[in-house]
Amino acid sequence: MLTEDDKKTYKAIILLNELINGDHKFQTVANGDDKILEPLFIELMSKGYVQTAGLNYDVAPKGKEVFDNFMLRYTEYLKVYDVYSFVDLEKGEFAFSRYFDFDSDAAWDNFKNDQRFDDMRIAVAQFKKLNPADIVFMSFINENRFDTSSTGWQMDLVSSNTWTEIESIVSTAIQTTEVQEDAMVDMIKQGTELMISLMEEEARQRKEDEQNNNGNDNGQQTTVYETVEHYEPYYDPWYVSPIWMVPLFLW
Predict the structure, then answer these.
(1) For the region Disordered, what residue ranges are annotated (predicted)?
(2) What digits encode the pLDDT tens for the residues 18-63?
């Protein structure tokens, strides 16, 4: 079950993202669809995560720090945990091992959605003592399920439907107790090796693209990418990055 703090945390992340990266202005005297968000903004301001700027709410330094910490987790989710979203347990095959074999998103989607693949992200999160609801929430963000450009998104954010769906996904997914520990350890090791190889291939392709465009950079600086070595501790199946250990918000 999601706790009330879980729900407030997820709602707050969506609002902080809109304050930091969106175009929407939230007025301190709310009107229209924003009015339903007023209790959450009041609590965020009382905790020091949000401040006022004239007639509008704005992110406070404490809120920006929380959001940056969340984005570190989200980056690790995409690189470390998403690889377990399509696993053929019988063959020991990961759909992501074929990721670079497809020339179109449609072909990739058709392949990964084969019924033989199971979503093992919840089981992996449980094995590593993480909150599995966090993984589902991040997958919703990756799928743009919290589309703040759509009409009525505020009501969707505060209604129970999304949180009930997250709870349902967690409860109906394959649980770590359904898989033998040796098999879980072996799968996580395979997933880590695959994750590292995917990152190496991405780095190789980026380097190739940069070399091909070397004469057309107009003096722009070369982008510095996160190194593969950063993720090597995950070769230990029980390893969890410290960024997951401290609560994002203190409610």
Answers:
(1) 202-221
(2) 999 998 899 999 888 999 999 999 999 999 999 999 999 999 999 9
44: domain range?
A: 4-210+224-244
CA 110, 170, 11, 66 dihedral sign is negative
User: What number of other Cβ atoms are within 10 A of residue 77's Cβ?
Assistant: 21
* Tokens 């945990």 belong to residue: 81
pTM of the model: 0.90
CB-based contact 165:133 (threshold 8 Å): no
Residue that the structure tokens 């982008």 belong to: 223
DSSP reduced 3-state for 51: strand
Is residue 215 one of the residues assigned to a domain?
no
Q: What angle do CA 67, 68, 69 make, to 5 degrees?
A: 90
